[in-house]
Amino acid sequence: MLVVEDDPVLLTILSRYLGQRGCCVLGASSAAEALELFAHTPIDVTVSDVRMPGMSGHELLQEVRRRDPEADLILITAHSSVKEAVAAIRSGAADYLEKPVDCRRLHHTIQIIAERRRLRQRVRILELGGRDSTVFEGMVARSRRMLEVFSFIERIADFPTTTLILGESGTGKELVARAVHQRSPLRDRPFVVCNCSVLASGLIESELFGHVRGAFTGADRDHKGLFETANGGTIFLDELGELPLGAQVKLLRVLENREIRRVGSPTSVPVEIRVVAATNRDLGHMVRDGEFREDLFYRLNVGVIELPPLRERLEDLELLCEHFLTQFARRFALDKASVSAGAMQAMRSYHWPGNVRELSNALERASIMANGGEMQLEHLPIELRRTTEAPEKEEEEEVSTLDLSLEAAERDQIRRALDSAGGRRVAAARLLGLSRRTLYRKLDKYGIR
Ligand SMILES: Nc1ncnc2c1ncn2[C@@H]1O[C@H](COP(=O)(O)OP(=O)(O)OP(=O)(O)O)[C@@H](O)[C@H]1O
Ligand SMILES: [Mg+2]
Q1: Do the Cβ atoms of 292 and 338 come closer than 8 Å?
Q2: Rounded distance from Cα 278 to ligand 2 centre (Å)
Q3: CA distance 379 to 242
Q4: 139 or 44: whose pLDDT is higher?
Q5: In the predicted model, what is the mean pLDDT of residues 126-143?
């Protein structure tokens, strides 16, 4: 929530009071500052003074509601007058309070609003047709596979288990890593992100573990590594598959001994740290090719979270669209765009190699082009339009989203068998309990190569 108040003392008192009661509070000393925050941060409830230099609380309220019709605003009026109260409610305030502010009453009002928001959200989800969709640490989903991911996160977050997040690019690995931290007892401790692919390979060990002065040419002072910075909290090793073998050995040592040694230092220091790693590479393959240490792989392979690609959870598509379109409407101060049937069909048929990130990018551009109206097929990037423009493809995709026939199940099962057999047909036939000849016939029938 956001508190807007030009009196710095009152701002501090209110923020602190609400913060101590479990609200996540941001403060702004003017309406302009509030709108700036509003553009970048999701805010459920805003508490604003009415009389402020520049834009008034009433004007702020109108602007906020224009950007996000569901935003709730509580106004704080200086005088108790019927006129003020009527003005506040008429301009759409959820409630109004008088100065001097009774903090307890404010908190109570916020609780009621929060409860109402929860109900509204549940109703909206029901209206969307999914009984069990969820918002979890900034992620929205209704597909069974994602709901399972959420409940797995809940389970492992309490334990200091090392977590490995696997998934294609743009599937939400970083959000999941943050969720693990947020749901853990370490949530108030540091969450340090280390992108293993960005660090210059020569420097990676010193970046991760630090170094002492004189450890190598150019090391003219002691340097604290990311592990030490994250000590007591979580370190997120993003793009773990890019970590050079030398650093992998050291990482394994940290995981096993729970201590680190700065480069060039004879002594180690103990660390209490949670390690969350993510990669879009196939670590099993990398182990086979000698690019990733097997012992480290097994060490990390305990708490694995696998994020399904978007194309395998199209049930989430509408919900994600809703989520992003609301976000962009707010960011660009536009009305929320709706999605035409044609555009939705194109999104359903598309392969989404860049997953949720690609969806978000496509919608960002489309919302600007739709300019607060209905998003059309031509507002989507060219790759998406191609899918629907090619007629046979459209037919095939349409079938694949709706087809619940036994034939479709058989086709899927065959594909799956081929996948697990690494494409070897003889092995796939064995898995399926079919003769080789029968499998060949079916491959022809379904056009599987
Ligand atoms: N379930 C979700 N709900 C809402 N937003 C999501 C969801 N999943 C992903 N996103 C959004 O999609 C984008 C990509 O997510 P993220 O950066 O976590 O992916 P990633 O797997 O780390 O990608 P990469 O492999 O490219 O690093 C982000 O903007 C993120 O906020
Ligand atoms: Mg990422």
Answers
A1: no
A2: 8
A3: 36
A4: 139
A5: 70
Residues 212, 327, single domain; the answer is: no
What six digits make up the tokens of 242?
């890019």
Share of the chain above pLDDT 70, in %: 91
Residue 426's CATH number:
1.10.10
Domain boundary among 101, 124, 147: 124
Confidence label for 394 from pLDDT (cuts 50, 70 and 90): very low
Cis-peptide, bond into residue 100, ω within 30° of zero: yes
Q: At residue 169, what is the residue type? A: S
Average pLDDT, the chain: 86
**CA 170 to ligand 2 centroid distance, Å:** 7
204 pLDDT more than 60: yes
Burial of 291 from C-beta contacts in 10 A (0-12 / 13-18 / 19+): middle
Ligand 1 pocket test, pick from 40, 134, 168, 174 with the greatest ligand atom count within 8 Å of Cβ, gives 174
Q: Is ligand 1 within 6 A of the CB of residue 360?
A: yes
- Tell me, yes or no, whether 10 and 28 share the same domain: yes
Q: What is the CATH number of the domain that holds 90?
A: 3.40.50.2300
Domain ranges, residue 109 = 2-124
Cα–Cα distance measured from residue 88 to residue 78, given in angstroms and rounded to the nearest whole number: 12
Q: Confirm or reject: Cβ of 163 under 6 Å from ligand 1.
A: no
Mean pLDDT of 134-151: 84
Kindly give the interhelix angle for 317-331 and 355-370, rounded to the nearest 10 degrees.
50
Distance 167 CA to ligand 1 centre (A): 10
3-class SS of residue 18: helix
Q: Return the H-helix or E-strand segment holding 396.
A: helix 391-402
Residue with tokens 């969720």: 179
* Closest atom of ligand 1 to CA, residue 168: 25
Residue range 140-160: mean pLDDT, rounded: 83
Any idea what the Cα angle at residue 86 is, between residues 80 and 91, rounded to 5°? Answer: 120
Ligand 1 atom nearest 307 alpha carbon: 21
130 pLDDT above the threshold of 70 = no
Closest of 206, 242, 212 to residue 227, by C-alpha: 206
